[in-house]
Amino acid sequence: MKRNGQTEESDSKPPPTKKPKVVKSKDKENHIDGLDDTDSLWRVEEELQYNFSIGLDTSRNICRLLDEGKTIPFIARYRREQTEGMEPDTLRHFKESFESYKTVKEKCIKNISAVVKLGKLTPIVKRSFFAAKSLEELEVAFTPFKTSAKTSLAERARTAGLGEHAENLLTGRISSIDPNSLINSKIPGRETVADIENGLQHVIADAIVYDKDFVIFLRDTQKKAGLVMEVKESKTKENKKDASTKDTKKKTGSNETDSRKFEIYHDFSKPVKFLQSHQVLAINRGESLKFLTVKINIPDWVLQQIEKQVKYQWLCKGSNSKYRTELISASVKDAYKRLITPKIIRNCRAELTKMAENEAIDNFAKNLQKLLLMPPYLGKTILSIDPGFSHGCKIAVISANGDVLDTAIIRPRFNIETGGDERTFAQLQSLVLQYNIDTIAIGNGTACRETENLVDKAIQTGLFKHMKVQYVIVDERGASIYSCTDIAKKEFPKLDTNLISAVSLGRRLQDPLSEYVKIEPHHLGCGMYQHDVKQARLKTALDETVVECVSFVGVNLNSCSDLLLQRVAGLNAARAKSIIDYRREKGDFQSRSDLKKVKGIGEKVFEQCAGFVRVVNSSDKIGKPDKKYNPLDATNIHPESYAAANKVIEKANLDISKIGTTGFKQMLQQYVVKRGVENLASELKIGVPTLNLIVESLEKGLGYDMRESMDGPIFKSGMTRLEDIKVGDTLTGRVNNVTPFGAFVDIGLGKNGLLHNSKMRGAKVELGNRVKVKLINKDLNMGKIGLELIQLL
After folding, report:
1. How far is residue 662's CA from residue 216's CA, in Å, rounded to a whole number?
2. Rounded percentage of the chain residues whose pLDDT exceeds 90
3. Rounded distance, CA 13 to CA 777, Å?
4. Per-residue b/e over 606-635, b at no fewer than 16 CB within 10 Å?
């Protein structure tokens, strides 16, 4: 079989058996002389080309860019000509696969080196290593050679001297052999005819399973086979209750060991290809907690296909005889039962888990992205409340610039009839009127509903007099964790930890991105099955998502915090500190190029970060810019493209100081249409994607913020109760979490409603979307709310 330009090797002639020489190398430990990646049976670029359905040149371009240390945001925005316009999410997957394949290549060479030292490297073993495309496959190939591992049946037979005879029979060099001639009572495994025939069978089975072409065939067969997963309730779960409790605490960080959560899987059967990611992760969890047992059923069709493949690949070639046919047929059945079936099941489970983890991590990353890109609510003084019962409600008054103006703690009685006591109302009234507050932010945690009722009562009774006050529910996930961090203590050294949470809530409303970057992404909890995926992969994906969001929004070099700066592509904590120190000592940056004067910012770092930082003219005088100020420094245009941008402005007879104005935009559009995008790009000697970026940036102007197009929070001046609505009522709300099976919508009832996938009418909703929904069911006792989508707003 040929794929991605790979060439087949003849099955009739085995590879040479010359033993590679192990030599010491300063550059690579355990390097094998004459053995490197050129010996491999597959190429990273070709595999990635196949996996991502892109051109080979594109695959090579991206691999080269990643090898050069280019960041995902930089590649996605400024190297689109070389990537076929690949989006950041896809580039992130590409990078993960690229690094995984490189790891496999490196470990393959190390494993072969180890086998060479043992003196056990044969052509078949070498091919089995070079055919492996994952660490799991490498592990299987290397297991027989581990010093602590039990020797495989095939390895014992080879040790007994039966390897060459078996391989000659398999390849057809000989058609039969007399077992009696090989009997040797002094050699274990060759005492009897039965020992010899079993040994030959084990070597042939092993050679078939690890053959490069057979491995590819088996992968394809597995994909076509109608594998079925069957799940049952574990009969041993009661005997292992204590172990389950420990496992759950370790794996999920909670005390939930209720087997009832897995009842829907007690008699579950479904074709593997139809399994959904959340089902796979739930089944994996139930199995690890000993509540479920899992079985993969393989149809007989698979064995039939394997027998056909063996006949085509081996039996139809070389010398043949009844003895050879029967021995190879017996070897196939032995291989199927002992090696292939476990391998198919292992591969199937691994692929399902990988698919489920990928979807769960992608879902988490997309939700995080929407959360970070919520539009800022600027220019308002905010009164934020962190609700609570026993410790009271913590209050912070935040200025339009994010400064803490005042703090307080109120201890309402939360009496439903009165909505609170007079003292509480007096404290709220005093703060609102003193600071002219028209917006109150309420955290959505414990006592949120009661606090909302309190604020609603104050508004409805005219407590705030002339002030038209509105309130909004703010997601407080991670706020309490942030308040205990060193970052929070450094920022608010004299402020009580509980009050810091209230400050964070208010700032989240004002500028979500600036506030959320202070919190480790996994603490924001905007996904499901967080503890059931590999934590290292989750952390990497979420960290890169934060970098993408911060980079694409852009940061002002002269006002941003070091926490924002260190999340810019190409920068880190040390470089961000150097930039802040430079700004403190030298004053404001006058241009992007000034970054090169900062310690630790060389040409490579500057290339990566320059397009994502902005220098905004402090004078803010439209039409009268500072002579030293370059307006392009406040756009998304990279300094490497300034020459092309200036030529566009010059050729269109435009004034650079008018960037973003209506007249400038109209004239630019007219010029580009008249000249033609491809002709203009060719004239400027740049790619069409780069020209489009230049034109788009010039049109949007200097104050453009990509978050303006996102859905913002929902403000309310009165509350709705679950008891007051009935099935069939139409409600509006905001999506605040998206899962593989549906979305949870805040409809102002103090409890999120579930919008199941089956009720979305084919629409795709994302975190932050505003939606109009219909109430289709409610359960007052359980607090469950079912919704159906009417339309996206």
Report:
1. 59
2. 52
3. 70
4. bbbbbbbbbbbbeeeeeeebeeebbbbbbb
Answer positive or negative: Cα dihedral of 253, 254, 259, 261.
negative
CA angle (525, 529, 530) in 5-degree steps = 45
Residues of the chain with CATH 3.30.420.140: 382-508
Q: How many CA atoms lie within 13 A of 360 on its CB side?
A: 26
Q: Could you tell me the two tokens for 432?
A: 């609102």
470: which DSSP letter?
Answer: E
Q: Where in the chain is the domain with CATH 1.10.10.650?
A: 21-150
| Residue 134: closest CA among 94, 110, 100 | 100
720-792: CATH class:
mainly beta
CA dist 727 and 49 (Å) reads 51
Residue 40 is which amino acid? S
Distance CA 65, CA 350 (A): 30
Contact call for residues 552 and 541 (beta carbons, < 8 A): no
- Farthest CA pair distance, the chain: 108
Residue (of 291, 287, 280, 281) closest to 233 by Cα position: 291
Per-residue tokens: 70: 């280019």
- Owner of token pair 């000659």: 168
Q: Are 57 and 590 in contact (CB under 8 A)?
A: no
What DSSP designation does 35 have? B
Concatenating the DSSP letter of every residue in 305-345 gives: HHHHHHIIIIITSS---HHHHHHHHHHHHHHIIIIIHHHHH
Cα 114 from Cα 111, distance rounded (Å): 5
- Within the chain, all domains assigned CATH 1.10.3500.10 are found at 216-370
pLDDT in tens, 726-773: 787 777 777 878 887 888 887 766 678 888 888 888 888 888 787 888
Residue type, 396: A
CATH 2.40.50.140, the chain: domain bounds? 720-792
Least-confidence region, from 214-228, 241-255, 559-573, 575-589: 241-255
Average pLDDT over residues 517-545: 85
The CATH architecture to which 549-708 belongs is Orthogonal Bundle (1.10)
Buried b vs exposed e over 10-35: b needs ≥16 C-beta within 10 Å? ebeebeeeeebebeeeeeeebbbeeb
Class of domain 382-508: alpha beta
The CATH number given to 21-150 is 1.10.10.650
Q: Give the integer Cα–Cα distance in Å for 433 and 430.
A: 5
User: What CATH number should be reported for the domain whose range is 216-370?
Assistant: 1.10.3500.10
End-to-end, the C-alpha distance of the chain in Å comes to 51
Torsion of CA 100, 105, 106, 110, to 10 degrees: 130
Residues 6+ apart with CB under 8 A from 789: 755, 759, 760, 761, 763, 765, 771, 772, 773
Q: What is the dihedral of CA 201, 204, 208, 212, to 10 degrees?
A: 160
Q: How many residues does the chain have?
A: 793
What confidence category does residue 704 fall into, taking pLDDT thresholds of 50, 70 and 90?
A: confident
Q: Could you tell me which residues come within 8 angstroms of residue 274 by beta carbon, excluding any fewer than 6 positions away?
A: none
Q: pLDDT, tens digit, for every residue of 14-68?
A: 344 444 444 443 334 334 444 555 567 789 999 999 999 999 999 999 999 999 9
Q: Are 100 and 132 in contact (CB under 8 A)?
A: no
CA distance 56 to 599: 39
156: three-class secondary structure by DSSP: helix
Q: Given this model, what pLDDT does residue 623 score?
A: 45
What would the DSSP string read from start to end of 400-461?
TTS-EEEEEEE-----TTTSS-HHHHHHHHHHHHHTT--EEEEESSTTHHHHHHHHHHHHHT
303 contact partners, CB below 8 Å, separation of at least 6: 333, 336
Average pLDDT over residues 255-277: 83
Q: CA distances (Å), 14 to each of 7, 133, 211, 314, 531, in order? A: 15, 22, 11, 12, 48
Which residues share a beta bridge with 294?
231
Closest listed residue to residue 131, CA positions, set 29, 13, 9: 9
**pLDDT score, position 683:** 93
